[in-house]
Known about the structure:
This protein is an alpha/beta fold and 344 residues long. The chain folds into two domains: 150 residues, Rossmann fold (3-Layer(aba) Sandwich); 98 residues, no CATH class. The protein has eleven helices and twelve strands. It has an eight-stranded mixed beta sheet, with helices on both faces. A four-stranded antiparallel beta sheet has the order 2-1-4-5, covered by helices on one side. Strand 11 and strand 12 form a beta hairpin. Helix 3 runs parallel beside helix 5, helix 4 crosses helix 5 and helix 5 runs parallel beside helix 6. The protein is globular, with a radius of gyration of 21 Å. 39% of the residues are buried. The site of iron/sulfur cluster has 13 residues, from loops.
Amino acid sequence: MNSDILLDVDDVARTYSVSKGLFRGRVPLRAVRGVSLTLQRGEVLGIVGESGCGKSTLARLLLGLEDTSSGRILLDGEPISSISRLRLTRRIQPVFQDPFSSLNPRKTVAALISLPLRAHKIGTPREQLRKVEEMVDLVGLPRRILDSPPNQLSGGQRQRVAIARALIMRPDIVVCDEPTSALDVSVQAQVLNLLQDLREQLNVTYVLISHNLAVVEYMAKRVAVMYLGRIVEENETAALFAEPRHPYTRMLLDSVLTADPDLGLPDAPIESSYPSPTAIPGGCSFHPRCVRAFAPCGTVPPSPLRLGVGSVECHLYADSVEQSAPSVRLPGETTVNDREGSLS
Ligand code: SF4
């Protein structure tokens, strides 16, 4: 295994059973479907997609807050399912969207930030306080707020408290799930800059999950685009924004260029409504909305195809891959030769 690969997500799926309504039985909801990706040490990987695409479920799987239905997630080669909850929280920490609900209003800021140290029984109370003071300095908060409850702080300050708590154990990975979307526009950039600065100072690796393309473009080195529980395109950030390959990625970029000045994705996309993950279309799941759909798209699911350093899951690129078939296969990847039977 490549020693730079910190996290290896291998063909992971998560399915729920949900009620169809009173007396109407239950139906599977396939929130994450066969996702494979790797996270390199020290990088920022952005995961972008509309509401309901499965990105927050994927975040919870990466954090070990939920079990996978199939597939596996390896942290430094070790399945996270075999790592104790306590040990995993030393390595992977979350920063969630809403700092208002993620901080207990009955605790002081000092108690909130020191919680991981106390849970892991690290240091004496005096040593813990010193680490807390270091962290509030690092995240740009004044020490005088340490004895305050979080509800006396602004939204931006609360998110800084959440970031301090996430980083106090010096985890390898922080999973940031929409870290700025609950904040005023005026403080979003400050929090993003803080996350960037801390990444450089503490050598932390981020998974950044967002519906906001501008946030991902600013922060991430690589981007994965999710649609109905699948990664449909992945590439280096500059390349993906300059030359989107998947028709869905193109649609996202086109829609935000005209619809929303802060590049946030609309909940209901412009072209048509987002399909339910309980009724995923057959073939390519994007085909009912795809302006470039052709013969095989309605019946044959495309597989991830490597193109240069990126990958795309779309039949349009089958010929490109044939001309430069890779010698090394990505997790979950197929080559054209593998797929000939199903395409014919
Ligand atoms: Fe569109 Fe077909 Fe590509 Fe799916 S496989 S994105 S339907 S062209």
